[in-house]
Amino acid sequence: MEEKKVSMDKIVNLCKSRGFVFPGSEIYDGFANTWDFGPIGVELKNNIKRAWWKEFVQKDKDTFGVDAAILMNPKVWEASGHVASFGDPKMDCKICKQRFRADTLVEAHSKGSVSAEAMTNEELEAYISEHNIKCPHCGGFSWTPIRKFNPMFITSRGTLEEGADKVYLRPETCQGEYVNFLNVQRTTRAKVPFAIAQIGKSFRNEITPGNFLFRTIEFEQMELQKFCADKDSMAFYEDYKKRAMAFVEGLGLKPEHLRFHDHDKLAHYAKAACDIQYLFPIGWQELNGIHHRGTWDLSRHQEFSGKSMQYTDPFTNEKFIPTVIEYSIGADRLTLALLCEAYDEEKLDNGETRVVMHFKPEIAPYKVAVLPLQKNLNEKALEVLDKLSDYFPCTYDEAGSIGKRYRRQDEIGTPFCVTIDFDTLEKNTVTIRDRDTMQQITIDVKDVAKYVLERI
Ligand code: GAP
User: Fold this and answer.
1) CA atoms within 13 A of residue 3's CA, in its CB half-sphere
2) 406 in ligand 1 pocket by Cβ < 6 Å?
3) Chain segment 98-150, per-residue pLDDT in tens
4) Is there a cis peptide before residue 193, judged by omega within 30 degrees of 0?
5) For the chain, which terminus, N or C, has the lower number of CB atoms within 10 Å?
6) Which ligand 1 atom is the nearest neighbour of the CA of 174?
7) Distance 234 CA to ligand 1 centre (A)
8) Does residue 328 have its Cβ closer than 6 Å to ligand 1?
């Protein structure tokens, strides 16, 4: 198995210096575990979200998109179980008063070789004690017992604080899909099996956020729920496992950095659950989940709303609550995985090292950089930029030596650099440099868009 060589620090530094991702509220000394996507990062993340939507919604006639409200009726979260039991096992360090997730402490200490998800609180406490796991913050060893901590962010609705109702920022997007099950079914006239998908922000007051974009308190999820007859549910579960793996491989994650991880402990209503894990610089960690959820979610919403969530089979007239297969992946976490995968340091023939992001052209933030060789070629270069920008996102750089400009584009993963030189004025030709091979060819200006489109 190939080990990842890049450290998280290198990724964070590159992201900051090149405009992928900045620390949130940086001029106020930041706001822990929030990140702002910069000009390059927003292009990258949008391309990833578009690729997901294309694969799972656009190309699937049985999947329909929604964009549900972030603030939902608080009863939704009672029905979903989040109010009563959503929560991670947390422990406080009695010395420095920092709070940690017990399962994360165990997994970090065992470098992922111990699966903490199936351990009871007593087992977690025993493991921490036997292995003398110290506080990652102060190095002390004095823990409180494990307690549950509800990570939902609470806000209030109402003009007067005293009369205000408590509302929650959604901790997952899928509830917007469940509550709209019958709306979507009725308006699209879909027959079970069909799926509802959405991409949107979720919020969790995580106890141990960190590792850059890996675990944050505000993040985007790309989730879909397949509603099906129970007899077909395991076939759809297996199908989504395959499709989810093919999707991340297709975006450029290497198969040797990916693996399935079946959950050891299943919810009482579930028949199966698994993650796809990716080999991040911090070790093997969950990238996405595929969960068999039985009829739990729709049944609970039926119970708490008092509205029937039953589907009537148009052929048999049978009424039933469909079984759900859920596929859920974090857009920020996937962006982080793709940043780690793309990062490379290459030794060049002249002894220098170049940092290059080998993004697949489909997800690269910009497809083309237009570079005038000299200042007096700017006008022509801007004309070429204008034409190419009709087809795909491009960038423009006229500052510094051409070598430096190539390096800057390598660092943000631009697959093609189009250089405008004097031949452009005389013969209407440009050179196109390939990011990965660094080979250059000369082609006519009118053929550039076609050349690039064929390769992205
Ligand atoms: N509706 C199911 C659900 O939310 P989850 O395993 O809690 O399941 C699904 O989350 C995915 O969302 C994860 O696999 C991960 O990619 C992403 N995710 C979850 N919590 C996150 C966080 N705090 N920061 C970034 N991404 C997160």
Assistant:
1) 4
2) no
3) 888 898 899 889 887 887 877 888 899 999 999 999 999 999 999 999 987 78
4) yes
5) N
6) 1
7) 22
8) yes
Task: Quick: pLDDT tens for 168-206.
Answer: 999 999 999 999 999 999 999 999 999 999 999 999 998
Rounded Cα gap, residues 93 and 101, in angstroms = 11
Contacts of 281 (CB under 8 A, 6+ apart): 4, 6, 7, 8, 11, 340
Q: How confident is the model at residue 1 (pLDDT cuts 50, 70, 90)?
A: very low
Q: Which atom of ligand 1 is nearest to the CA of 275?
A: 14
220 ligand 1 Cβ < 6 A:
no
User: Which residue has the CA at smallest separation from atom 25 of ligand 1?
Assistant: 215
Strand arrangement of the beta sheet that strand 88-92 belongs to: 99-101, 88-92, 147-149
φ/ψ (deg, to 5) at 202: -130, 160
Query: Which residue has the CA at smallest separation from atom 12 of ligand 1?
Result: 330
Whether 338 has a pLDDT exceeding 50, the answer reads: yes
Asked whether the beta carbons of 336 and 214 are under 8 A apart, the reply is yes
Domains of the chain by start residue, with CATH: 8-87+150-339 (3.30.930.10), 366-455 (3.40.50.800)
H-type alpha helices, 19-167: 39-53, 74-79, 82-85, 102-109, 121-130
Rounded to whole angstroms, how far apart are CA atoms 325 and 16?
38
Looking at residue 210, its pLDDT comes to: 83
Q: Is the CB of 170 under 6 A from ligand 1?
A: no
Q: Please identify which residue in the block is written with the tokens 């200006």.
A: 445
Q: How far apart are CA 390 and CA 404, in angstroms?
A: 27
Question: How confident is the model over 426-454, as pLDDT tens digits?
Answer: 999 999 999 999 999 999 999 999 999 99
Q: Within a 10 A sphere around the Cβ of 331, how many other Cβ atoms?
A: 20
Phi, psi of 335, rounded to the nearest 5 degrees = -60, -45
Q: What pLDDT is attached to residue 267?
A: 86
Residue 30: which residues within 8 A CB-CB, separation 6 or more? Answer: 23, 24
Q: How far is CA 402 from each of CA 262, 263, 273, rounded to the nearest angstrom?
A: 50, 52, 51
Read off the pTM.
Answer: 0.90
User: What pLDDT is attached to residue 163?
Assistant: 60
